[in-house]
Amino acid sequence: MVDTKITLSGLALDNPIIPASGTFGYGYEYAELYDINMLGSFSFKGTTKEPRFGNPTPRIAECSEGMINSVGLQNPGIEKVIEEELPKLKKCFSKKVIANISGFSIEEYVHCCEKIDGEKQVGLIEVNISCPNVHNGGMAFGTSPESAFEVTKAIKEITKKPVYMKLSPNVTDIVSIAKACEEAGADGLSLINTLLGMRIDLKTKKPVIANKMGGFSGRAIFPVALRMVYQVYEAVSIPIIGMGGISKAEDVIEMMLAGARAVQIGAENLVNPYICKQIIEDLPKTMEKYKIESLENIVGGAH
Amino acid sequence: MVDTKITLSGLALDNPIIPASGTFGYGYEYAELYDINMLGSFSFKGTTKEPRFGNPTPRIAECSEGMINSVGLQNPGIEKVIEEELPKLKKCFSKKVIANISGFSIEEYVHCCEKIDGEKQVGLIEVNISCPNVHNGGMAFGTSPESAFEVTKAIKEITKKPVYMKLSPNVTDIVSIAKACEEAGADGLSLINTLLGMRIDLKTKKPVIANKMGGFSGRAIFPVALRMVYQVYEAVSIPIIGMGGISKAEDVIEMMLAGARAVQIGAENLVNPYICKQIIEDLPKTMEKYKIESLENIVGGAH
Amino acid sequence: MKQSIFTVENNECLAKNTYELILSGDTSDITKPGQFVNIKLDGCFLRRPISVCDYDDKTLTLIYKVVGRGTEFMSKLTKCDKLDILTGLGNGYDLSKSGDTPLLIGGGAGIPPMYKLAKELIKEGKNAAVILGFNEEQELFYEDKFKELGTKVYITTADGSKGIKGFVTEAMKNISYSYFYVCGPEPMLRAVYKESIAEGQFSFEERMGCGFGACMGCSCKTKYGNKRICKDGPVLFKEEIIW
Amino acid sequence: MKQSIFTVENNECLAKNTYELILSGDTSDITKPGQFVNIKLDGCFLRRPISVCDYDDKTLTLIYKVVGRGTEFMSKLTKCDKLDILTGLGNGYDLSKSGDTPLLIGGGAGIPPMYKLAKELIKEGKNAAVILGFNEEQELFYEDKFKELGTKVYITTADGSKGIKGFVTEAMKNISYSYFYVCGPEPMLRAVYKESIAEGQFSFEERMGCGFGACMGCSCKTKYGNKRICKDGPVLFKEEIIW
Ligand SMILES: Cc1cc2nc3c(=O)[nH]c(=O)nc-3n(C[C@H](O)[C@H](O)[C@H](O)COP(=O)(O)OP(=O)(O)OC[C@H]3O[C@@H](n4cnc5c(N)ncnc54)[C@H](O)[C@@H]3O)c2cc1C
Ligand SMILES: Cc1cc2nc3c(=O)[nH]c(=O)nc-3n(C[C@H](O)[C@H](O)[C@H](O)COP(=O)(O)OP(=O)(O)OC[C@H]3O[C@@H](n4cnc5c(N)ncnc54)[C@H](O)[C@@H]3O)c2cc1C
Ligand SMILES: Cc1cc2nc3c(=O)[nH]c(=O)nc-3n(C[C@H](O)[C@H](O)[C@H](O)COP(=O)(O)O)c2cc1C
Ligand SMILES: Cc1cc2nc3c(=O)[nH]c(=O)nc-3n(C[C@H](O)[C@H](O)[C@H](O)COP(=O)(O)O)c2cc1C
Ligand code: FES
Ligand code: FES
User: Fold this and answer.
1) Of the candidates D89, D114, D140, which is a domain's last residue?
2) Judgement on whether residues D125 and D174 belong to the same structural domain of the protein
3) Catalytic annotation on A131?
4) What ipTM was predicted for this assembly?
5) Residue D139's CB: how many other CB atoms inside 10 A?
6) Nearest by CB to B197, which of A219, A227, A298?
7) Which residues on chain D place their C-beta less than 8 Å from a C-beta of chain B?
8) D234 and D169 in one domain?
């Protein structure tokens, strides 16, 4: 029997498969389809201090082997998430969840992390400093080592749970940003968020997306994600959750060889709602095919 | 009759279709297949001062809707290009060609540009400050506005032909680099070069490419390329040659609506050697379908 | 929601760029007219949402207009081809509000969901009338199918080549109705909203990521709060719409 | 080089993971044994290079081993399927150097090009011998086909389950030959290079971008300068190889 277990900053996961924030809602839609307790964990929709409607529609465009979204962090706000979503979630998910937090100022990040830190259901906090879909904030914090350091430090001061900083791929030097987060005390890193992309409608001759640009993700971005995980793994010693374009068990293994301890699956959930279940089921036989006994042993194996 | 003509810094092109540097050699292989004089122009393989073998093999990896290369600027050196390749090329290509130049120091860039500036066959010089496949140089010049400014300025001082700076997408802020090139006197911009990407072989558990990482291109990167052309078009007033993942006439129009005056086609030539011919043939009927009379009129039309 | 494999039984051109696709498969999750399905197509990353036009125990009928790559691909499907489809998506129409003389208004690719709706209303003994709006006569489809149901059918064409010249609102002016149901392009929905003299339900379209409520790609604001067109819609009540 | 559409006539499993694909189409650009073709497959971005095993006016035979996604896809091809193929790629073997008693050495997926080569050498009246190297008996193919040509055939298997136990070099020790031609995995090529007592030609593999000389993806250094495996190779002379 192969071993798919993995630990992430003390959090023991049955397997490394985690649906990515923003593509799994709060889990209910998928719980209708299969028992989501089979997942390693899951990262809930990016949550901010205040409720947000997000960007105008259209918010979605299609690409070759991928998609663009400009949802813009639509969420009911941290209070409602704690009061309403988490209790509802408890009924269909008994494992620890990853709380994905966004903000527009350090104060907001700190506010949300402080609130969520007390929640037992939350296993770790994933701080999104890389959302390309909101102005003045989000991605801005993730594009310079200095601001990444500051947010991380401020959050670490008020939280007890492990804090994972989620980084943007839209940077010249992701390694320097990763190192800044590590220095500021981050317990781990999630990478990558979406690439900034765009499509234009030939009929209207205008951008497809109301907000013009948006976050590009899906299978197409896998080689970029893999490269960044590989680079960052060489530079830091904290664990990495790898994501970007994963769509099959082979991709999970490739990402772990590059240096990820766990993986997230985003866009693929939207087109195949059973994909996480399928990958979890395929993983053992794929491990056997490539003569892998334990996933713990392959993390960073390509270095 | 629709009009596919376009001018690029005074260079009149029958159509905006230009095979991209590194994917069309010096043209001979394709000249065996069709009359390459139908092309708008073409950009020859990146040329350096000294002859180069390039990187160790394997240099090629496959991705979803794209590929990674780490050729590393294999070329016979500027002298041989001028003495041997250009005269040979003259026999199968009577139009002006684009000279793609690379270097490892400002002196080298200047040396090569000076040499090529006297060649009548050359219509414009495309300066690659974005090659991800060579250490200490190439991409380094294209990742900061200061160094991009310096190279551009030095080259502009010794050349009479139009100079197009070819930019890297692997940056936080492509607009600032584009502006620096414009300020330093660049006549135009070519974007984008390849994204830095990677693949790992599950059987050997090591990177597929000997050099580990390489330049990722092909259909998968189109949304990133389109976004960058769109952003840069808003910030500069010099012409842009757009490229990255173009594989059909519709993509050409989309790229021009984003702001490109001409386009280059790279990886697609390798899998379909007739692609440029096909796009040139498809372009008029595709223009009619979308009610476009003249390509000149649609440049930047999506803004 | 259910994911299952359907088999193409027939795929036929009904009118200019308009096709009728008859599929067999597991329809058990489809519960109401006005719901939609989301279809995986080779070469397309995202699924394509198409309204349920008609269904029974094991047959599903869709009508679609060829407008781009995905629908172009669909037009080439032939008998025995298999399709991966998510069924049972969306809220569907609320039939309980119809009153005795409901008016059904469909424009172009918005006509299909009206067919099953008309069928059900008539089964309930309602005296339903239908307005079918097209640009030109060549686009006309399903006139006879609606007539066979026993509804009164009004045809409008923008160029006057068939029926009443003008938009569907032209026909509305002379009809009295207890309630209405409408599906079509947004400008038409807006015009109907303005012209309408009773309450009604509107079916909306939006570019979708998932189609089942997980991604927030298709949200809109309503008087009753934010709604996802795919899950809380595509049908909204007249009273809640904010234009 | 020529791009054209071939039709699958037959696709058959010959041995463990090894298939023979017979195609009909325009073979006019194939001029020499040792050349290869480059095949476009649905779902793969890059083409797949496969050596010409045999050809005549209108038939092309390929033999391939299933090792990944592309060859997996190929194994599912059936009669009448169409394939977009670039033909006439690579330099091919130089037959003029063979002498009277050439030795042909093929290992696993390197065996196919030896077949047409043997055919041609025999047509020229040469007394060709062939060594076919496999890992185990289940991988064995084309033994009889080579025998039918009238060549002497030596079989080696790494595990000794058939023929001589060991690598192809084991068989080479007891054969005298005027010249040799070899194709197989790189470790085998190196071993043959060391063991060989005459001059010869080596066929190389490299990951390819284009396969026709345009991208510099497949370069190697030789004593005669830089060469592209796809265009200036895949065949190199023993004398020029730098390991
Ligand atoms: C709930 C719902 C029900 C629908 N019912 C029908 C129907 O019964 N018959 C019919 O002909 N059409 C219907 N449509 C519209 C149909 O989904 C689009 O015409 C179709 O997706 C276009 O795909 P394409 O690949 O041909 O076009 P492309 O333009 O190539 O598609 C590109 C992307 O844009 C999306 N898109 C394009 N147009 C629309 C649109 N109008 N609405 C939503 N997304 C769009 C596609 O889904 C795809 O993701 C419905 C749409 C929705 C949201
Ligand atoms: C000139 C030449 C002739 C060949 N002739 C034969 C033949 O007659 N029979 C046969 O079975 N095989 C032959 N090969 C090897 C064959 O090309 C590969 O086995 C095949 O491309 C693997 O594709 P895949 O999708 O199944 O594997 P994957 O591993 O999924 O392929 C991924 C990528 O790697 C490349 N690749 C993988 N293995 C090789 C390899 N060994 N050599 C070159 N590229 C590779 C693929 O082309 C593709 O681009 C030849 C290779 C070359 C270069
Ligand atoms: C529709 C959509 C919404 C997303 N929303 C969020 C979000 O709220 N917070 C966040 O950190 N990432 C968000 N992401 C990014 C994903 O979590 C993930 O990092 C990215 O999509 C790359 O993975 P993929 O290629 O598997 O989709 C979103 C992605 C998509 C497609
Ligand atoms: C095999 C290969 C070699 C390349 N060599 C060069 C080069 O020498 N100089 C250069 O400026 N760009 C080079 N490029 C980049 C292309 O010119 C182009 O910018 C990039 O591939 C994006 O276009 P595409 O997606 O159409 O391939 C190379 C690309 C490929 C695939
Ligand atoms: S399309 Fe995903 S929530 Fe509606
Ligand atoms: S594979 Fe392109 S030059 Fe050989």
Assistant:
1) D89
2) yes
3) yes
4) 0.96
5) 22
6) A227
7) 1, 3, 40, 44-47, 86, 206-210, 212-221, 226, 231
8) yes
Q: Are C126 and C151 in contact (CB under 8 A)?
A: no
D85 and D104 belong to one structural domain: no
Please give the distance, rounded to the nearest whole angstrom, from the Cα atom of residue B42 to the centre of ligand 4: 12
Summarised one tens digit per residue, pLDDT across range A239-287 is 999 999 999 999 999 999 999 999 999 999 999 999 999 999 999 999 9
C-alpha angle with apex D40: B58 to D35, nearest 5 degrees?
65
Same domain, C99 and C36: no
C-alpha C227: how far from its chain's center? 19
Nearest to D207 among B29, B57, B269 (CB): B57
- Residues paired with C19 in a beta bridge: C13, C64
Which helix (DSSP H) or strand (DSSP E) does residue A114 occupy? helix A106-117
* Model confidence at A138: pLDDT above 60: no
Ligand 6 centre to CA of D214 (Å) is 6
State whether C85 and C107 are in the same domain: no
Ligand 6 and D65: CB distance under 6 A: no
Regarding whether D223 and D131 lie in a shared domain, the answer is yes
Chain-centroid distance of CA C69 in Å reads 20
Which ligand is nearest to the Cα of residue C68, counting in written order? 1
User: Choosing from B63, B112, B113, B131, which is the catalytic residue?
Assistant: B131
Say how many Å lie between the CA of residue C59 and the centre of ligand 3: 36
Tell me the CATH number at C23.
2.40.30.10
Copy the structure tokens of residue C236.
């909204």
What number of residues does chain B have?
303
Q: Phi, psi at residue A116, to the nearest 5°?
A: -75, -20
Would you call B98 helix, strand, or coil by DSSP? strand
The answer to whether the pTM exceeds 0.90 is yes
Domain carrying residue D34: 2-89
Q: How many domains does chain D have?
A: 2
Residues of chain A contacting C210 with CB distance shorter than 8 Å = 23, 29, 269-271, 273
C58 Cβ partners below 8 Å, 6+ apart? C24, C25, C26, C27
Q: List Cβ neighbours of D174 (8 Å cut-off, separation of 6 or more).
A: none
Q: Name the band, by pLDDT with cuts 50, 70 and 90, for residue B130.
A: confident
Contact list in B for residue A254 (CB cut-off 8 A) is 199-200, 202
Single residue among C89, C116, C143 that ends a domain in this structure: C89
* Side-chain half-sphere exposure of C4, counting CA atoms within 13 A: 16
Ligand 6 atom closest to residue D213's alpha carbon, by position in its atom list? 3
Q: Of how many residues is chain A composed?
A: 303
Q: What is the mean pLDDT of chain A?
A: 95
Pick from B267, B266, B280, B290: which is nearest to B13 by CA? B280
Give me the domains of chain A, ranges plus CATH numbers: 6-298 (3.20.20.70)
What does the pLDDT read at residue B140?
72
D210 Cβ closer than 6 Å to some ligand 6 atom: yes
For residue A273 the two structure tokens come to 């709602």
**DSSP state, residue A82:** I
**What atom of ligand 5 comes closest to residue C206's alpha carbon?**
1
DSSP-derived pairing of the beta strands C54-55 and C200-203 = unpaired
Query: Would you call the peptide bond into A58 cis, given omega within 30 degrees of 0 as the criterion?
Result: yes
Whether C80 and C114 map to the same domain: the answer is no
Tell me the percentage of chain D whose pLDDT exceeds 90: 97
Model confidence at B137: pLDDT above 50: no
Same domain, C84 and C136: no
Asked if pLDDT for residue A72 goes beyond 70, the answer is yes
**Nearest to D241, CA basis, from D196, D190, D207:** D190
CATH of the domain at D205: 3.40.50.80
- Taking CA atoms only, the protein residue closest to ligand 1 atom 1 is C205
Return the closest-CA partner of residue C179 out of C201, C146, C194, C150.
C201
Distance from CA of A293 to the nearest CA of C (A): 33
Q: How far apart are CA C199 and CA C196, in angstroms?
A: 8
Chains near B (3 or more Cβ pairs under 8 Å):
A, D
